[in-house]
Structure formats: C-alpha cells, structure tokens
C-alpha cells in the first residue's frame, strides 16, 4: 500500500489536526524561509500550497499583501476562519490547483511553497506558474524534505507506519527527487531561476511522552490520518498498539527528534 498525497482528499481529512499540531511544528521551517528573503511593508507575496496559513499568517505582519493558495477546501476554510476571527485584511485566499494560478504575470515580489510544490503531480507546471507570476528580480523559496536518513523524526513515524502496515513499501533513497539537493538545484535552474542555492534547515519536536507523540502524529500527519480512516476502530486500536510498542523500543528515551528539510532559493532573472 502506498499513500498518495497529490490529491486534496488527504489534506481535507488532516486539515483540523494539521492546524492544531503540525502548523506549530512547521513554524521553524517557515521562519527560516522568510529569513532568506528581504521583505518590507510594500511587498506582495504568494504562499503556494499554504495549508492553514503557516507562512501566510507569519509574513502578513510584515508585508503589504499575501495571496494564499491551496486546493484543500478544509485548509482554506481554516485559514479563512482565522482571517475573520483575527481581523486580518491583507491575506486573500484562493482554493484551487497550484499548477494553474489565477494571477497576472509579474504580480509578486516573492513566492513561497513550503512542503507543497513537492506534492504537485507536475512540479514543472508549479515552477512555471511561480516564475510567471513573480516580478523580474522576484525571489522564490521552496521547501522539501531531506532523505529519511537525516531525519530521526520521520524515521520514527515511517518506521511505526511500516510496523503497522508491513505491505507498505520501504522508503527508498531517490537521487532523482528533491531530497537530493543537487537534483533540486538543477530542477530550479531548469525552471529558469538564477542564483539558485539549496540550504539545509533542521527543526526539532519535543517528545514529552511516547503516547502523546503518537496521538499528535496521528492527528497531524496526512499519511496516518489516511491509514486510520481506512480501518475500523478495533483494527486501529490493534495497529496503534503495534506502533506504540515500536516507538517505545526505538525512541523511548528521546527528548527531541529532528527533521531536516531543504530550502531551495532562486531569483527570476
Ligand atoms: C504539508 S502541507 C503544507 C502546508 C503549509 N505550506 C505549511 O508549511 O504548513 C501541504 C499542502 O499542500 C497542498 N497542496 C498539495 N498539492 C497541491 C496542489 N496541486 N495545489 C494546491 N495545493 C496543494 C495541500 O492541500 C496541503 O495543504
């Protein structure tokens, strides 16, 4: 069994848990991406595959306008709710496919796609849309995960998942994917960006107990929500026990687990 995260359904299913749990965990990557770009109160930016607004909400405090795009109605619904409840006026949302944007050419000073473009079925289409809608000299930052071997957090989660579902294929290192920084750099260069550089960023998650780590992961991780939804409650309880035993054995003493990502930076020439 593989898990396909290129359609909106898994993201609709996980949206609430993602906004309650994962968003905070991902804040460090967003902060690192924003630190790579000079933004000011005149800047107009794009947050492509924005989820519940992890980057959009952070950036909106410092820029003129944010366009936040996601194809998950639930994610956009949560962001719209935040905008309304917090009276935020400079983020405009659009629900739709990031591979075909409704924005004019040369609209943005900067564009970001944090753990989003990596899921597009045709990444080149995503790059093209970013390139088209950036102003000349505009900057893009795209994040994607480093190999599993660099990320104890993801090793733990995927290890638990495979323990529960032995038929799930073992994640293989793939040099022809964004987890390879050289491939990532070449891909962004091929898409037309200049001054491309790929930087590592590692963020940690505090582990207070294995039970709460597992509970949060199940709430906030799309692959686990998908697996949980495919089972009866009884089956899930049994599988969860297997996962908890595995986590206890493998990370029982850990206080913090990190996950490494790459930030791909480029400029529209
Ligand atoms: C891991 S979440 C990242 C959310 C947010 N950028 C963050 O850093 O927390 C991935 C997001 O990409 C969105 N997504 C994936 N493919 C998409 C596509 N083709 N068009 C628009 N959004 C997409 C999903 O709906 C989901 O909200």
Provide a descriptive summary of the structure in words.
This protein is α/β, with parallel strands linked by helices and 269 residues long. The chain has a domain at 8-147 and 172-205 and 258-268: 3-Layer(aba) Sandwich (Rossmann fold), CATH 3.40.50. The protein is built from nine helices and seven strands. The protein has helices at residues 8-35, 54-59, 73-86, 123-133, 152-164, 181-190, 210-220, 222-229, 233-251; strands at 44-48, 65-70, 91-95, 108-114, 134-145, 193-206, 256-268. The protein has a seven-stranded mixed sheet. Strand 2 (65-70), helix 3 and strand 3 (91-95) form a beta-alpha-beta unit. Helix 5 packs across helix 9 (233-251) and helix 7 (210-220) crosses helix 8. The longest helix is centred in the N-terminal third of the chain and has 28 residues, at 8-35. The N and C termini lie far apart (43 Å). The model has no long low-confidence stretch (mean pLDDT 96). It binds S-adenosylmethionine. S-adenosylmethionine is lined by residues 8, 11, 23, 26, 30, 49-51, 54-55, 69-72, 75, 97-99, 114-116, 119-120.
Per-chain topology:
Elements: H1 8-35, E1 44-48, H2 54-59, E2 65-70, H3 73-86, E3 91-95, E4 108-114, H4 123-133, E5 134-145, H5 152-164, H6 181-190, E6 193-206, H7 210-220, H8 222-229, H9 233-251, E7 256-268
Parallel strand pairs: 1-2, 1-4, 2-3, 4-5
Antiparallel strand pairs: 5-7, 6-7
Helix pairs in contact: 1-3, 1-7, 1-8, 5-9, 7-8
S-adenosylmethionine binds at residues 8, 11, 23, 26, 30, 49-51, 54-55, 69-72, 75, 97-99, 114-116, 119-120.
């Amino acid at each position: 069994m593989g898990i396909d995260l290129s359609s909106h359904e898994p993201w609709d299913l996980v949206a609430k848990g993602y906004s309650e749990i994962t968003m905070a965990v991902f804040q460090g990557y967003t902060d690192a991406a924003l630190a790579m770009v000079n933004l000011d109160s005149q800047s107009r930016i794009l947050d492509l595959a924005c989820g519940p607004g992890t980057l959009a909400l952070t950036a909106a405090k410092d820029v003129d306008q944010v366009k936040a795009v996601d194809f998950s109605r639930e994610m956009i619904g949560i962001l719209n709710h935040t905008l309304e409840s917090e009276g935020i006026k400079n983020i405009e949302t659009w629900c739709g496919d990031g591979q075909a944007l409704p924005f004019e050419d040369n609209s943005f000073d900067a564009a970001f796609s944090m753990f989003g473009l990596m899921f597009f079925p045709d990444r080149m289409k995503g790059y093209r849309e970013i390139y088209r809608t950036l102003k000349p000299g505009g900057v893009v930052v795209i994040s994607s995960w480093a190999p599993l071997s660099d990320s104890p957090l993801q090793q733990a989660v995927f290890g638990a998942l495979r323990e529960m579902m032995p038929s799930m294929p073992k994640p293989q290192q793939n040099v022809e994917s964004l987890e390879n920084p050289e491939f990532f750099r070449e891909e962004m260069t091929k898409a037309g960006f200049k001054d491309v550089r790929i930087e590592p960023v590692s963020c940690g998650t505090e582990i207070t107990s294995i039970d709460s780590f597992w509970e949060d992961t199940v709430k906030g991780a799309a692959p686990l929500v998908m697996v949980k939804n495919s089972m009866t409650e009884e089956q899930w309880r049994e599988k969860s026990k297997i996962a908890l035993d595995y986590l206890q054995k493998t990370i029982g003493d850990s206080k913090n687990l990190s996950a490494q990502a790459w930030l791909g930076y480029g400029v529209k020439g």
